[in-house]
Inverse folding.
């Protein structure tokens, strides 16, 4: 059994500012960390490694410092790390990102299961998993809170909906995107951390993946960000409820009923 | 004529409110474009009866028993065939779990752009300009898709209000299509959660509990007050670890967006990930022992003090 886990590195904080002159996001100086949901994806893969001896490959597209995220995955127990890095990949929207990831999955020789986090916490689209599934013509199991694979090539999952759940099952190979409810990720062990630094990371660019310049990066991206701004929150006027808890509660009820809110 | 399509999502034999909200919004920005609600259902279902009350110009209806419990793959097959034949200018989905799963799959097959989880939509001439939040709603961006068609977006539920509009009878265009069922996937019946989150998303009154209000007696009292005023009890993320609550009641970035007329926050600090979930609430009341709690910055009424004592005061006097 072979599992590929796709990982994104995101800014450590969502408290990013806009450069008042260039109107670009100021991301310099903010260090990168692994997208939190992707840690659940790694854990899901490692549970399959524990159970079936699955081989786990961590895959990421990004600048060279994304190596850090691959090392973390290997320190948790992934067998291998593959970095997709090239200037040509920069500025990719979700479609162009998925094109590169799908090509890399093929280059690695495919897998029984390709795992994703439910969404990246920065750009927050959740689109890359379903897009890769579509590009590889694989079934998708998105937003899963339960996931079981059997040795005879079946997948059985529970997808968490907004107001319920639904069981989905079928044949492998498949793509799954995981929710944090799926599992409690393990910590890296000192032994694995040490081992992870002995492993080589394979790096591919567009030539290795046999991709045309028009399919990748900005050129391969149909969407364009035309404006970036900080939302101006309309400041709410806050009224303090004075007195004892009882008085304050009474006071609130009066005000709410005056305004026909209650 | 150029068309805006809205994919009509359904769960538990009901049209998802996000689809109806999108119909109202699409009509508001249509400026001469035709608003088409696209319904895929089996022969026992009649979602068109609900949808037509909201006044789309047209309903594109596919009735086929293979659409019962259809997988994302099967729905994609049908929608892509329809879109390739009829060439809508724009396709919109609710940014629900279902919408966020289907839309990118369709985007991939149509090789076009998709903007996620939008908070606003408008047309600048022919271009759909979608406003998308990112970095936990700290940054907004406007995104367009100038070269590819259709233009696609998913839109955050409960951002717009659905308004009934009986001014004209929509044309119902029922089409026969072959439904290519993907044989690789089996979808079972949906199971509702004990307390339907839909009711959190659409609740008019919410009592929200955080880490400063998580004792058993507070939870009991909050439920009592909720019963009295017709509210629903919701929680911040840490409380989803308690046996009484689950993700279904969680408000926030990784939970649910709510838009009640009234929300009372008890013992919630007001982390950005929580606050983004309540920004569409009309009246916000917060109780916290910490006078500097950030939740007060987004509240109309604040009380600095103990949550349980305040709750007692409310129950006694309501
Ligand atoms: C402010 C902002 C807004 C944006 N809005 C949009 C938009 O609306 N539409 C659009 O098409 N693009 C958008 N983009 C571009 C988008 O962020 C990139 O395409 C990004 O590479 C992937 O999208 P995501 O971050 O939303 O990931 P998601 O789709 O949310 O990620 C889901 C999962 O996919 C995997 N994954 C994601 N990226 C990688 C990667 N580089 N390597 C390996 N695995 C990965 C991870 O498992 C992750 O958990 C936006 C970018 C910015 C900066
Ligand atoms: C990627 C990501 C996604 C997240 N998504 C979400 C999300 O969707 N929803 C969410 O809620 N959080 C989310 N979080 C977590 C979030 O950052 C906060 O940790 C969380 O909201 C804090 O919950 P809280 O306000 O209940 O607890 P705390 O921050 O611990 O606040 C408790 C408050 O109670 C007050 N208090 C204590 N005792 C009393 C008393 N007796 N009476 C009154 N007040 C009292 C304290 O002063 C304090 O302000 C997310 C975090 C990350 C990193």
């Amino acid at each position: 059994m072979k599992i590929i886990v796709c990982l994104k590195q995101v800014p450590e904080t969502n408290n990013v500012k806009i450069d008042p002159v260039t109107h670009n996001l100021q991301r310099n100086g903010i260090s990168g960390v692994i997208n939190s949901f992707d840690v659940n994806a790694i854990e899901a893969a490692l549970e399959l490694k524990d159970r079936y001896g699955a081989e786990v490959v961590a895959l990421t597209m990004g600048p060279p410092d994304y190596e850090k995220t691959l090392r973390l995955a290997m320190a948790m127990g992934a067998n291998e790390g593959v970095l997709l890095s090239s200037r040509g990949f920069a500025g990719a929207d979700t479609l162009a990102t998925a094109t590169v990831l799908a090509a890399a999955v093929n280059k690695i020789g495919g897998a029984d299961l390709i795992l994703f986090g439910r969404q990246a916490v920065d750009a927050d689209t959740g689109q890359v998993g379903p897009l890769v599934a579509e590009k590889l013509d694989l079934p998708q199991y998105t937003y899963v809170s339960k996931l079981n694979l059997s040795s005879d090539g079946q997948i059985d999952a529970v997808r968490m909906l907004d107001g319920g759940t639904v069981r989905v099952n079928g044949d492998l190979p498949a793509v799954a995107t995981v929710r944090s409810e799926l599992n409690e990720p393990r910590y890296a062990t000192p032994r694995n951390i040490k081992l992870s630094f002995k492993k080589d990371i394979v790096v591919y660019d567009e030539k290795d993946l046999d991709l045309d310049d028009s399919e990748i990066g900005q050129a391969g991206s149909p969407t364009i960000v035309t404006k970036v701004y900080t939302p101006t929150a309309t400041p709410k006027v806050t009224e303090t409820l004075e007195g004892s808890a009882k008085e304050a509660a009474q006071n609130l009820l009066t005000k709410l009923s005056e305004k026909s809110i209650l | 004529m150029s068309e805006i399509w809205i994919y009509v999502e359904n769960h538990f034999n009901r049209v998802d409110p996000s689809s109806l909200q999108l119909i109202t919004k699409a009509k508001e920005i249509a400026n001469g474009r035709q608003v088409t609600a696209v319904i895929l259902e089996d022969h026992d279902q009649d979602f068109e009866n609900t949808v037509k009350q909201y006044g789309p110009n047209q309903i594109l209806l596919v009735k086929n028993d293979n659409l019962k419990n259809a997988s994302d793959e099967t729905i994609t097959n049908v929608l892509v065939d329809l879109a390739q034949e009829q060439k809508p200018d724009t396709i919109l989905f609710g940014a629900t779990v279902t919408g966020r799963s289907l839309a990118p799959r369709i985007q991939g097959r149509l090789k076009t752009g998709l903007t996620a989880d939008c908070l606003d939509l408008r047309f600048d001439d022919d271009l759909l300009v979608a406003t998308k939040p990112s970095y936990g709603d700290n940054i907004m961006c406007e995104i367009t898709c100038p070269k590819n068609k259709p233009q696609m977006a998913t839109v955050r539920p409960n951002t717009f209000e659905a308004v009934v509009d009986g001014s004209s009878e929509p044309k119902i265009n029922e089409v026969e299509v072959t439904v290519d069922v993907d044989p690789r996937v089996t979808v079972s019946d949906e199971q509702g959660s004990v307390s339907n989150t839909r009711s959190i998303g659409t609740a008019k009154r919410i009592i929200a509990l955080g880490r400063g209000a998580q004792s058993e007696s507070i939870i009991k009292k909050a439920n009592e007050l909720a019963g009295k005023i017709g509210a629903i009890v919701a929680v911040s993320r840490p409380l989803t670890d308690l046996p009484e609550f689950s993700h279904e009641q969680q408000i926030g970035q990784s939970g649910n967006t709510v838009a009640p007329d009234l929300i009372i926050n008890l013992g919630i600090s007001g982390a950005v990930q929580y606050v983004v979930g309540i920004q569409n609430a009309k009246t916000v009341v917060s109780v916290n022992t910490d006078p500097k709690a950030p939740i007060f910055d987004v509240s109309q009424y604040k009380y600095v003090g103990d949550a349980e004592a305040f709750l007692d005061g409310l129950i006694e006097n309501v």
Chain B has two domains: 3-174, 205-317. Residues A 6-8, 35, 37-38, 41, 59-62, 92-94, 97, 101, 116-117, 119-120, 123-129, 223; B 113-116, 132, 134, 141, 143 surround flavin-adenine dinucleotide (ligand 1) (CB under 6 Å). The longest helix of chain B spans residues 72-86.
